[in-house]
Amino acid sequence: MTELTLFNSLTRQLEPFRPVHAGEARVYSCGPTVYNYPHIGNMRAYVFADLLGRTLSWRGYKLTHVINITDVGHLTDDADQGEDKMERIAARRAQSIWDIARHYTEAYWTDIQALNIRQPTHWSIATDYIDAMIDFARSIEERHCYRLESGLYFDVSTVADYGRLARAQTDEGEGRIEAVAGKRNAADFAIWRTTPAGERRQMEWDSPWGRGAPGWHLECSVMSGKLLGFPFDIHTGGIDHREIHHPNEIAQNQAFCGCGSLSEAANSGARMWLHNNFLVERGGKMSKSSGEFLRVPLLVERGYHPLAYRLLCLQAHYRSELEFSWDALGAALTRLKRLVMSVAALRERAPDAGWRGWMRAEALAQDWGKLQPLVERFDAALADDLGTPIALTALEDVLAAKKVDPALKLAAAAAMDSVLGLNLGSLTRGDLRLRPASATIAEAEIDALLDRRRQARTAKDFATSDTLRDELAASGVEVMDGDPLGWEWRL
Length: 491
Prior knowledge:
By secondary structure, this protein is α/β, with parallel strands linked by helices.
């Protein structure tokens, strides 16, 4: 049996997945701070977490997956300086902070659905756990914290191996944080932020350290511990969390559990820490501070199906930096079209064949005939730290295989898609032919003009054919004569 191996950021090496509880997989993923819309770089982290969860389900584990929603506590500066992002946006827009949080949470959930990301077992909302955060902070205060006028701070010198996850090499701490007056160590961070005298926040609560709000890092320690128990199996997040947020979270977990050195990974609170790399866009549209940034709805407005973006993510290994461009997304859409067309063609040949999810044990016990090496290659690729680039080629080779029962090919494709999550069993040509927001011509009108053009070409009336092509072009429709996919047109 091929073991599932994953790259543990804490140890910087590939390790076999050995669950804390037999037959179970408990996973915590850092979720969004809901002060703005998520950009597509943010969403890469959840495509990755979904792939991980699907792989664990594929291998037969009972998955408990938690994704948090940060609706309080995250400051404009990771060094515990600046305003709370939620408070700042609510004040700027003269809106209730609760309304702001609800609006952006629902926008995030819409993107989750568009990318065919499975619902986690729990959506944990930070403000639902304030009492638990206060209890957690009280339990570690005496040995690990100290008070300043601005709140309760964690002393990082009180835990072993602080910053090991980030592999810090500087005296100033893993995040190279500027010193703040009163801190014992530059890397010390806020557990609780007391509201300054004379100020009032929309989100603030009474605590032993004064009325205020929790620090950003506290929520993840509390919610992961409450919902999964320490130690749990896997903690995921973007690589940006590896430098500050996750080392601080680990320090809190060590303090709470009374754990020692991080030479034993479970002392960090999770046995494995997995991080996806950045999505890079050279035009600077990945930063929310730019005002107009790349979002999933923008892809749709440009005529790209969201699952083309999911496929773009899967084409690269999750630990590799991925560069975004419209050309790359267009190529991913073309690849997705080929997959959809291949599945549709097989269904025409095997109309009674079903499409369902598969478990690995069932798939490996199936007699796949000529497809057996491809199914095994697919499984081995996933087992090797979620190697989706190879897994995708295995899927394509299944669909392209000659002299194989079409029903068997559909079954193999369904098994693979249950992990890849491209929704190939439901997508149609019509789904992938999205209308850009700027398009004004109706699809029925396009079809009518194309039908007239086909008749003109059949009659060798090329003047009329060219006139109709120009008419379509003036309406923003590109006629795709000779397209090997047979897609005919695009807006």
